[in-house]
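A reminder before we start the practical. When you read a complex entry, don't treat the lines as separate problems. The point of joint prediction is that each chain is placed relative to the others, so the output describes one connected object in space. Small molecules and nucleic acid strands, if listed, are placed in the same frame. In the example below there are two entries. Take a minute to note the order of the lines before looking further.
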Amino acid sequence: EVQLVESGGGLVQPGRSLRLSCSVTGFTFGDYAMSWVRQAPGKGLEWVGFITSKAYGGTTEYAASVKGRLTISRDDSKSIAYLQMNSLKIEDTAVYYCTREGAGPGTYYNWYWGQGTLVSVSS
Amino acid sequence: EIVLTQSPATLSLSPGERATLSCRASQSVSSYLAWYQQKPGQAPSLLIYDASNRATGIPARFSGSGSGTDFTLTISSLEPEDFAVYYCQQRYNWPVTFGGGTKVEIK
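Here is the predicted structure of the whole assembly.
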């Protein structure tokens, strides 16, 4: 069974940093791309960013709203994806979902989702 | 950035009725469009990918159609568990974008 478990959320002041982790089981982590999607309280879904598998270069893509501040990385030896969040803003307050994508181009959809972790940015 | 516009924002229907949800893209996304369902307090889940393919385990009452800029998600006969929010998403190019969602509520 595919499982994704996010951790690392919490309350943080504007301008500070936070790192979210996504631990996975039930599939060969290194074979798949991963992504992060967020949802502000009472709002819709917003795509945050994406990282391919190493087979496709470990390439990353980001939403314009987070580019330069949020960074996605992966540790295939630990089956963990990370979202490093720097220079946090109040508008980054949201539930952050980790998702498993497909293995390669043409299969990139959010096939599996974690339950999410809440990040609250407030002074 | 490709903008996806979903309509209506809210759909009020009774169990057993047919639901038709629309998603319009600001430019062609070919067939690289997905639909997700989100129930209150839960993570979203993938329903439809490549515009018309059901994800594993999705009942046949859910169907997707369209290509280019106009897409439709149809629920042929609403079950109680289908009342939720539905989002479309394009994967044609970066950045990935979602529509604003359609809430299907019980009338």
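Discuss with your neighbour: Chain A has no helices and eleven strands. What might explain this?
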